[in-house]
Design brief:
Layout (H helix, E strand, L loop, with lengths): L1 E11 L2 E7 L3 E5 L6 H16 L2 H7 L2 H5 L13 E9 L4 E10 L3 E2 L2 E2 L9 E11 L2 E9 L2 E5 L5 E3 L21 H11 L2 E4 L13 E2 L13 H11 L4 H10 L4 E3 L6 E2 L2 E4 L2 E6 L6 H13 L7 E5 L10 H11 L4 E6 L2 H11 L3 E7 L2 E4 L10 H7 L1
Parallel strand pairs: 3-19, 3-20, 12-18, 18-19
Antiparallel strand pairs: 1-2, 1-4, 4-5, 5-8, 6-7, 8-9, 9-10, 10-11, 13-15, 14-16, 16-17, 20-21
Helix pairs in contact: 1-2, 1-4, 6-7, 7-8, 8-9
Length: 387
Protein backbone atom coordinates (compact mmCIF):
# COMPACT_ATOMS: atom_id res chain seq x y z
CA UNK A 1 0.00 0.00 0.00
CA UNK A 2 1.29 3.44 -0.90
CA UNK A 3 0.84 5.97 1.90
CA UNK A 4 0.49 9.68 1.18
CA UNK A 5 3.41 11.46 2.82
CA UNK A 6 3.35 14.97 1.35
CA UNK A 7 1.00 17.20 -0.62
CA UNK A 8 1.78 20.46 -2.44
CA UNK A 9 -0.63 22.76 -4.28
CA UNK A 10 0.00 26.14 -5.85
CA UNK A 11 -1.94 28.54 -8.04
CA UNK A 12 -5.30 27.02 -7.13
CA UNK A 13 -8.06 29.26 -5.77
CA UNK A 14 -6.84 30.49 -2.35
CA UNK A 15 -3.80 28.19 -2.38
CA UNK A 16 -1.04 30.43 -3.65
CA UNK A 17 1.77 28.06 -2.71
CA UNK A 18 1.54 25.47 0.05
CA UNK A 19 3.13 22.11 0.76
CA UNK A 20 3.22 20.03 3.92
CA UNK A 21 3.71 16.50 5.29
CA UNK A 22 0.71 14.19 5.67
CA UNK A 23 0.25 12.00 8.75
CA UNK A 24 -1.69 8.78 9.15
CA UNK A 25 -4.43 10.92 10.71
CA UNK A 26 -4.57 14.55 9.53
CA UNK A 27 -7.08 17.02 10.98
CA UNK A 28 -7.60 20.52 9.57
CA UNK A 29 -9.91 22.88 11.40
CA UNK A 30 -10.87 26.43 10.55
CA UNK A 31 -13.70 28.87 9.96
CA UNK A 32 -15.71 29.57 6.84
CA UNK A 33 -13.74 31.04 3.97
CA UNK A 34 -10.29 30.00 5.17
CA UNK A 35 -9.78 27.58 2.28
CA UNK A 36 -10.05 24.21 4.05
CA UNK A 37 -12.16 22.81 1.23
CA UNK A 38 -9.56 23.92 -1.31
CA UNK A 39 -7.01 21.67 0.43
CA UNK A 40 -9.50 18.81 0.16
CA UNK A 41 -10.26 19.70 -3.45
CA UNK A 42 -6.55 19.65 -4.31
CA UNK A 43 -6.49 15.98 -3.33
CA UNK A 44 -9.54 15.30 -5.49
CA UNK A 45 -7.81 16.91 -8.46
CA UNK A 46 -4.75 14.72 -7.96
CA UNK A 47 -7.00 11.68 -8.10
CA UNK A 48 -8.62 13.13 -11.23
CA UNK A 49 -5.16 13.22 -12.84
CA UNK A 50 -4.81 9.48 -12.16
CA UNK A 51 -8.32 8.88 -13.48
CA UNK A 52 -7.64 10.94 -16.60
CA UNK A 53 -10.38 13.51 -15.91
CA UNK A 54 -8.31 16.38 -14.46
CA UNK A 55 -9.00 19.00 -17.14
CA UNK A 56 -12.66 18.01 -17.39
CA UNK A 57 -13.05 18.32 -13.60
CA UNK A 58 -11.48 21.78 -13.63
CA UNK A 59 -13.75 22.83 -16.48
CA UNK A 60 -16.77 21.53 -14.54
CA UNK A 61 -15.98 23.66 -11.49
CA UNK A 62 -15.99 26.84 -13.54
CA UNK A 63 -12.89 26.58 -15.70
CA UNK A 64 -9.53 28.23 -15.21
CA UNK A 65 -11.09 31.63 -14.53
CA UNK A 66 -12.62 30.19 -11.36
CA UNK A 67 -9.79 27.81 -10.45
CA UNK A 68 -6.65 29.93 -10.80
CA UNK A 69 -5.14 31.82 -7.88
CA UNK A 70 -6.98 35.14 -7.90
CA UNK A 71 -4.31 37.21 -6.16
CA UNK A 72 -1.38 39.09 -7.57
CA UNK A 73 1.36 37.27 -9.45
CA UNK A 74 4.94 38.28 -10.10
CA UNK A 75 5.62 40.00 -13.41
CA UNK A 76 5.96 37.35 -16.10
CA UNK A 77 4.77 34.53 -13.83
CA UNK A 78 2.74 31.97 -15.77
CA UNK A 79 -0.84 31.34 -14.71
CA UNK A 80 -0.49 27.73 -13.65
CA UNK A 81 -2.05 25.30 -11.20
CA UNK A 82 0.55 22.91 -9.80
CA UNK A 83 -0.32 19.76 -7.88
CA UNK A 84 2.01 17.15 -6.43
CA UNK A 85 1.83 14.15 -4.12
CA UNK A 86 4.61 12.16 -2.50
CA UNK A 87 3.72 8.52 -1.84
CA UNK A 88 5.73 5.95 0.08
CA UNK A 89 5.73 2.17 0.24
CA UNK A 90 6.60 1.28 3.83
CA UNK A 91 7.32 -2.34 2.84
CA UNK A 92 9.80 -1.79 -0.02
CA UNK A 93 11.02 1.64 1.09
CA UNK A 94 10.31 3.09 -2.34
CA UNK A 95 8.99 6.62 -2.68
CA UNK A 96 7.09 8.14 -5.60
CA UNK A 97 6.61 11.80 -6.45
CA UNK A 98 3.93 12.75 -8.96
CA UNK A 99 3.55 16.34 -10.16
CA UNK A 100 1.32 17.95 -12.78
CA UNK A 101 0.90 21.52 -14.07
CA UNK A 102 -2.23 22.89 -15.70
CA UNK A 103 -2.42 26.16 -17.60
CA UNK A 104 -4.29 28.17 -20.19
CA UNK A 105 -4.60 27.69 -23.92
CA UNK A 106 -1.90 29.83 -25.64
CA UNK A 107 -3.42 32.57 -27.77
CA UNK A 108 -2.33 35.22 -30.21
CA UNK A 109 -4.59 38.25 -30.51
CA UNK A 110 -7.30 36.30 -28.70
CA UNK A 111 -7.15 33.34 -31.10
CA UNK A 112 -6.20 29.90 -29.66
CA UNK A 113 -3.01 28.35 -31.00
CA UNK A 114 -3.48 24.76 -32.11
CA UNK A 115 -6.51 22.51 -31.88
CA UNK A 116 -8.09 23.65 -28.62
CA UNK A 117 -11.10 25.43 -27.23
CA UNK A 118 -10.29 28.90 -25.97
CA UNK A 119 -11.30 28.38 -22.32
CA UNK A 120 -10.26 24.78 -21.70
CA UNK A 121 -7.63 23.83 -19.07
CA UNK A 122 -4.54 22.18 -20.52
CA UNK A 123 -1.85 19.93 -19.05
CA UNK A 124 1.47 21.73 -19.47
CA UNK A 125 3.86 19.38 -17.68
CA UNK A 126 3.83 16.10 -15.83
CA UNK A 127 6.49 14.12 -14.01
CA UNK A 128 6.68 10.92 -12.00
CA UNK A 129 9.86 10.08 -10.08
CA UNK A 130 10.76 7.06 -8.00
CA UNK A 131 13.20 7.11 -5.10
CA UNK A 132 14.85 4.08 -3.52
CA UNK A 133 17.25 5.13 -0.77
CA UNK A 134 19.50 7.92 -2.05
CA UNK A 135 18.80 7.10 -5.70
CA UNK A 136 16.11 8.92 -7.64
CA UNK A 137 14.98 8.24 -11.19
CA UNK A 138 12.49 10.03 -13.40
CA UNK A 139 10.23 7.42 -14.99
CA UNK A 140 7.80 9.81 -16.71
CA UNK A 141 8.57 13.30 -17.96
CA UNK A 142 6.14 15.16 -20.14
CA UNK A 143 6.39 18.74 -21.42
CA UNK A 144 3.33 19.64 -23.39
CA UNK A 145 2.81 16.81 -25.88
CA UNK A 146 6.38 15.49 -25.85
CA UNK A 147 8.54 13.71 -23.33
CA UNK A 148 9.76 10.27 -22.34
CA UNK A 149 8.82 7.26 -20.27
CA UNK A 150 11.05 4.49 -18.98
CA UNK A 151 10.15 0.93 -19.96
CA UNK A 152 10.31 -2.16 -17.75
CA UNK A 153 14.08 -2.36 -18.38
CA UNK A 154 14.68 1.23 -17.31
CA UNK A 155 15.38 2.53 -20.80
CA UNK A 156 14.07 5.92 -21.93
CA UNK A 157 11.52 5.84 -24.70
CA UNK A 158 9.43 8.54 -26.29
CA UNK A 159 5.87 8.76 -25.04
CA UNK A 160 4.83 6.84 -28.12
CA UNK A 161 1.34 8.28 -28.23
CA UNK A 162 -0.05 11.61 -29.28
CA UNK A 163 -1.20 12.97 -25.94
CA UNK A 164 -3.78 15.72 -26.19
CA UNK A 165 -3.29 18.77 -23.94
CA UNK A 166 -6.44 17.75 -22.05
CA UNK A 167 -5.08 14.28 -21.22
CA UNK A 168 -2.78 13.22 -18.40
CA UNK A 169 -0.07 10.68 -19.05
CA UNK A 170 -0.75 9.13 -15.64
CA UNK A 171 -4.30 8.36 -16.72
CA UNK A 172 -3.29 7.21 -20.20
CA UNK A 173 -0.42 4.71 -19.78
CA UNK A 174 -2.53 1.74 -18.73
CA UNK A 175 -0.20 -1.18 -19.52
CA UNK A 176 0.99 -2.41 -16.12
CA UNK A 177 3.49 -4.80 -17.74
CA UNK A 178 5.33 -2.07 -19.66
CA UNK A 179 4.98 0.61 -16.99
CA UNK A 180 4.58 -1.06 -13.57
CA UNK A 181 5.54 2.00 -11.49
CA UNK A 182 3.08 4.23 -13.35
CA UNK A 183 0.33 1.64 -12.89
CA UNK A 184 1.17 1.28 -9.19
CA UNK A 185 0.87 5.01 -8.53
CA UNK A 186 -2.25 5.42 -10.68
CA UNK A 187 -4.08 2.54 -8.98
CA UNK A 188 -3.07 3.76 -5.52
CA UNK A 189 -4.44 7.25 -6.18
CA UNK A 190 -7.61 5.98 -7.82
CA UNK A 191 -8.33 3.92 -4.69
CA UNK A 192 -8.60 7.06 -2.54
CA UNK A 193 -12.11 7.74 -1.25
CA UNK A 194 -13.68 11.18 -0.78
CA UNK A 195 -16.80 11.67 1.29
CA UNK A 196 -18.52 15.04 1.36
CA UNK A 197 -22.12 15.85 2.29
CA UNK A 198 -23.91 12.54 1.81
CA UNK A 199 -27.29 13.25 0.25
CA UNK A 200 -30.24 12.57 2.54
CA UNK A 201 -33.18 13.94 0.54
CA UNK A 202 -36.13 11.67 -0.24
CA UNK A 203 -34.50 10.39 -3.46
CA UNK A 204 -30.99 9.98 -2.01
CA UNK A 205 -29.20 6.68 -2.74
CA UNK A 206 -28.72 6.20 1.02
CA UNK A 207 -32.47 5.80 1.44
CA UNK A 208 -32.86 3.08 -1.20
CA UNK A 209 -31.91 -0.61 -1.27
CA UNK A 210 -28.97 -1.55 -3.47
CA UNK A 211 -27.88 -4.62 -5.39
CA UNK A 212 -26.76 -7.46 -3.15
CA UNK A 213 -23.11 -7.71 -4.18
CA UNK A 214 -20.26 -8.34 -1.74
CA UNK A 215 -19.01 -4.79 -1.10
CA UNK A 216 -15.91 -4.26 1.05
CA UNK A 217 -15.62 -0.48 0.56
CA UNK A 218 -18.29 2.22 0.57
CA UNK A 219 -18.77 4.23 -2.62
CA UNK A 220 -18.11 7.96 -2.34
CA UNK A 221 -21.82 8.80 -2.54
CA UNK A 222 -22.83 6.04 -0.10
CA UNK A 223 -25.07 4.40 -2.71
CA UNK A 224 -24.00 0.88 -1.66
CA UNK A 225 -24.29 1.36 2.11
CA UNK A 226 -26.77 -1.50 2.50
CA UNK A 227 -24.36 -3.84 0.69
CA UNK A 228 -21.48 -2.73 2.94
CA UNK A 229 -23.55 -3.57 6.03
CA UNK A 230 -24.70 -6.89 4.51
CA UNK A 231 -21.09 -7.81 3.69
CA UNK A 232 -20.09 -7.32 7.31
CA UNK A 233 -23.15 -9.10 8.68
CA UNK A 234 -23.44 -12.06 6.30
CA UNK A 235 -20.08 -12.47 4.52
CA UNK A 236 -17.67 -11.53 7.26
CA UNK A 237 -20.26 -12.48 9.90
CA UNK A 238 -18.87 -9.91 12.32
CA UNK A 239 -20.71 -6.74 13.26
CA UNK A 240 -19.01 -6.15 16.61
CA UNK A 241 -17.43 -2.85 15.53
CA UNK A 242 -20.67 -1.69 13.90
CA UNK A 243 -22.70 -2.56 16.96
CA UNK A 244 -20.26 -0.79 19.28
CA UNK A 245 -20.14 2.34 17.12
CA UNK A 246 -23.93 2.45 16.86
CA UNK A 247 -24.40 2.07 20.61
CA UNK A 248 -21.87 4.85 21.28
CA UNK A 249 -23.83 7.20 19.02
CA UNK A 250 -27.39 6.02 19.68
CA UNK A 251 -27.50 4.12 22.99
CA UNK A 252 -29.94 1.23 22.90
CA UNK A 253 -30.43 1.35 19.12
CA UNK A 254 -29.81 -1.75 16.99
CA UNK A 255 -28.85 -2.15 13.33
CA UNK A 256 -30.98 -4.70 11.48
CA UNK A 257 -29.47 -6.22 8.33
CA UNK A 258 -31.70 -8.90 6.75
CA UNK A 259 -30.22 -11.69 4.64
CA UNK A 260 -30.19 -10.15 1.14
CA UNK A 261 -32.10 -11.45 -1.83
CA UNK A 262 -31.49 -9.68 -5.11
CA UNK A 263 -31.18 -6.43 -3.13
CA UNK A 264 -29.63 -5.55 0.21
CA UNK A 265 -31.33 -3.37 2.78
CA UNK A 266 -31.08 -2.38 6.42
CA UNK A 267 -33.03 -0.74 9.20
CA UNK A 268 -32.78 0.36 12.82
CA UNK A 269 -34.68 -0.30 15.98
CA UNK A 270 -34.87 2.44 18.62
CA UNK A 271 -34.83 1.91 22.40
CA UNK A 272 -38.34 3.35 22.69
CA UNK A 273 -39.63 1.01 19.93
CA UNK A 274 -37.54 -2.17 20.18
CA UNK A 275 -39.92 -4.21 18.03
CA UNK A 276 -40.31 -1.67 15.25
CA UNK A 277 -37.72 -1.61 12.46
CA UNK A 278 -37.31 1.83 10.92
CA UNK A 279 -36.25 1.67 7.28
CA UNK A 280 -33.78 4.24 5.80
CA UNK A 281 -36.64 6.29 4.31
CA UNK A 282 -37.87 6.95 7.86
CA UNK A 283 -34.55 7.88 9.48
CA UNK A 284 -33.58 11.47 10.19
CA UNK A 285 -30.95 13.16 8.04
CA UNK A 286 -28.43 13.16 10.87
CA UNK A 287 -28.96 9.50 11.75
CA UNK A 288 -28.64 8.43 8.12
CA UNK A 289 -25.47 10.49 7.62
CA UNK A 290 -23.92 8.97 10.73
CA UNK A 291 -24.72 5.46 9.46
CA UNK A 292 -23.03 6.38 6.16
CA UNK A 293 -19.92 7.49 8.05
CA UNK A 294 -19.96 4.17 9.89
CA UNK A 295 -20.05 2.38 6.54
CA UNK A 296 -17.18 4.51 5.22
CA UNK A 297 -14.95 4.00 8.26
CA UNK A 298 -15.79 0.44 9.34
CA UNK A 299 -16.04 -1.39 6.02
CA UNK A 300 -14.73 -4.92 5.47
CA UNK A 301 -11.74 -3.45 3.62
CA UNK A 302 -10.89 0.23 3.87
CA UNK A 303 -9.34 2.16 0.98
CA UNK A 304 -5.71 3.25 1.44
CA UNK A 305 -6.76 6.87 1.97
CA UNK A 306 -10.06 8.36 3.16
CA UNK A 307 -10.77 12.10 2.96
CA UNK A 308 -13.72 13.56 4.87
CA UNK A 309 -14.98 17.07 4.27
CA UNK A 310 -17.02 18.50 7.16
CA UNK A 311 -18.51 15.16 8.29
CA UNK A 312 -20.23 16.96 11.17
CA UNK A 313 -22.82 18.47 8.79
CA UNK A 314 -26.38 17.86 10.09
CA UNK A 315 -25.11 15.89 13.09
CA UNK A 316 -26.18 16.72 16.64
CA UNK A 317 -23.33 18.13 18.77
CA UNK A 318 -23.59 15.09 21.04
CA UNK A 319 -22.40 12.93 18.13
CA UNK A 320 -19.02 14.66 17.89
CA UNK A 321 -17.45 12.50 20.59
CA UNK A 322 -18.54 9.13 19.14
CA UNK A 323 -17.61 10.37 15.66
CA UNK A 324 -14.13 11.27 16.91
CA UNK A 325 -13.73 7.74 18.30
CA UNK A 326 -14.99 6.30 15.00
CA UNK A 327 -12.45 8.29 12.98
CA UNK A 328 -9.60 7.43 15.36
CA UNK A 329 -10.51 3.74 15.09
CA UNK A 330 -10.44 3.88 11.28
CA UNK A 331 -7.02 5.57 11.34
CA UNK A 332 -5.59 2.40 12.85
CA UNK A 333 -6.40 0.65 9.55
CA UNK A 334 -5.83 3.36 6.95
CA UNK A 335 -4.92 7.01 6.41
CA UNK A 336 -7.64 9.52 7.23
CA UNK A 337 -7.69 13.18 6.17
CA UNK A 338 -10.33 15.42 7.72
CA UNK A 339 -11.36 19.04 7.29
CA UNK A 340 -13.91 20.37 9.76
CA UNK A 341 -15.52 23.45 11.27
CA UNK A 342 -16.03 21.64 14.55
CA UNK A 343 -13.56 22.44 17.32
CA UNK A 344 -15.27 19.77 19.42
CA UNK A 345 -14.70 17.10 16.78
CA UNK A 346 -11.07 18.14 16.28
CA UNK A 347 -10.45 18.06 20.06
CA UNK A 348 -12.08 14.64 20.30
CA UNK A 349 -9.86 13.23 17.56
CA UNK A 350 -6.81 14.67 19.30
CA UNK A 351 -7.88 12.87 22.47
CA UNK A 352 -8.76 9.50 20.95
CA UNK A 353 -6.40 9.43 17.95
CA UNK A 354 -3.46 11.50 19.16
CA UNK A 355 -3.57 13.65 16.01
CA UNK A 356 -2.39 17.23 16.15
CA UNK A 357 -5.05 19.49 14.74
CA UNK A 358 -3.90 21.88 12.06
CA UNK A 359 -5.55 25.30 12.13
CA UNK A 360 -6.27 26.69 8.67
CA UNK A 361 -6.15 30.49 8.38
CA UNK A 362 -6.25 33.20 5.72
CA UNK A 363 -3.29 35.58 5.34
CA UNK A 364 -3.96 38.42 2.90
CA UNK A 365 -6.25 36.21 0.86
CA UNK A 366 -3.88 33.23 0.96
CA UNK A 367 -4.73 29.96 2.71
CA UNK A 368 -2.11 28.88 5.21
CA UNK A 369 -1.75 26.49 8.14
CA UNK A 370 -0.62 27.74 11.53
CA UNK A 371 2.83 26.41 12.42
CA UNK A 372 3.74 25.59 8.81
CA UNK A 373 7.14 26.93 7.79
CA UNK A 374 8.06 28.02 4.28
CA UNK A 375 10.29 24.94 4.09
CA UNK A 376 7.17 22.77 4.14
CA UNK A 377 7.62 21.43 7.67
CA UNK A 378 5.61 22.05 10.80
CA UNK A 379 7.24 23.91 13.66
CA UNK A 380 6.88 21.03 16.15
CA UNK A 381 9.24 18.94 13.99
CA UNK A 382 12.10 21.17 15.17
CA UNK A 383 11.13 20.53 18.77
CA UNK A 384 11.02 16.78 18.14
CA UNK A 385 14.50 16.91 16.60
CA UNK A 386 15.82 18.78 19.66
CA UNK A 387 14.40 16.08 21.90
Amino acid sequence: MLAVREIAVSGYRSLRRIGFPVDDLSVFVGGNGTGKTNLYRGLELLQAAARGTLTRDLAAEGGMDSSLWAGRRRHGEAARIRLSATLHDDVTGQGFIYAVEIGLVPQVAGVPIGAAFAQEPQVKAERLSVRAGPRKAVILDRDGRTGFVRDEDGRKRSLGIDLLPTETALGTFLDATLHPEIALVRLAMMAWRFHHAFRTDADAPLRRPCLAVTTPTLASDGSDLAAVFATLAHIRQDTADLDEALDEAFPGARLVVPVPGREAGFGMTMPDFPNRVFCPAELSDGTLRYLALMGALLGYRLPPFIALNEPETSLHPDLMEPLARLIARAAQRTQVWLVTHSERLADGIATHGGALRRVVVKREGETWIEGLKLSGEFAEADRDDDD
